[in-house]
Write a structure and sequence with these properties.
mainly alpha
Length: 236
């Protein structure tokens, strides 16, 4: 376990529980929310191997996410937050095309296009006209990021069976094929959790208030960010 992970979970939990449905500490998220994302930036910075082509796009995406976290703390910061996270997804999309070409797995893209279309169809009646174009652009970038993350995972070859597989079950660094597939799997899972988190956020904003909304939105969001950072090739 990475030494930053317990602190990351702690600050994330404080942010979730500071909401009105829990302890109602309105000032605490101004500290703990950006701090949580700063911790995952520090994790990604320290984890990434020199020369990893995904390093800078993923770090750029995390920095844009930090901007979005801060923007959403302000009552009128939704559009600025939307723009920051749109840029974050574009940065992640660039990262996930470093090893596998864009849309190399059409089925993954078709699946995420259907999911994004379904979410838009459900939420569309509640989206104000002034936000319709930004929301469509955002959902498109979000779905493309998740689709390319899944594409990267699906394009990885199956690892060969090893006679000593159980001996190195906790250290696949000696098997590059297994390692690449595992890292790509974390990115794909992170992309899916990001979609879930944003779908819950949009439901709460445009459709109907969710009970304990932060409990639906923030844990999935920060799990997604940690998984995406974990998809970086680790230093030896």
């Amino acid at each position: 376990m990475h030494p930053l992970l317990p602190l990351y979970v702690f600050t994330a939990a404080l942010t979730v529980l500071s909401a009105p449905w829990a302890f109602d500490w309105p000032l605490l998220p101004w500290v703990t929310k950006p701090l949580t994302t700063v911790l995952v930036i520090a994790y990604a910075w320290r984890r990434a191997r020199e020369g990893d082509p995904q390093r800078w796009p993923i770090i750029a995406g995390l920095v844009c996410s930090l901007g979005g976290d801060v923007a959403l703390l302000f009552p009128n910061g939704f559009v600025a937050g939307l723009l920051c996270f749109l840029l974050a997804h574009l940065a992640y999309l660039v990262a996930f095309t470093r090893q596998v070409r864009l849309a190399a797995q059409p089925l993954a893209w078709a699946a995420w296009a259907l999911a994004a279309g379904a979410v838009l169809m459900v939420l569309w009646p509640g989206v104000p006209q002034a936000l319709q174009l930004p929301v469509v652009a955002y959902v498109t970038c979000l779905a493309a990021m998740a689709a390319q993350a899944m594409t990267t995972w699906a394009a990885q070859p199956e690892p060969p069976a090893h006679a000593d597989r159980h001996d190195d079950a906790h250290d696949d660094s000696r098997d590059p094929v297994r390692q690449r597939r595992r890292l790509a799997g974390w990115a794909a899972l992170g992309g899916g959790l990001f979609v879930f988190s944003d779908a819950m956020l949009a439901t709460n904003k445009f459709m109907a208030p969710l009970p304990a909304a932060t409990l639906w939105v923030l844990p999935a969001y920060w799990a997604a960010q940690w998984l995406i950072a974990s998809s970086l090739n680790p230093r030896r």
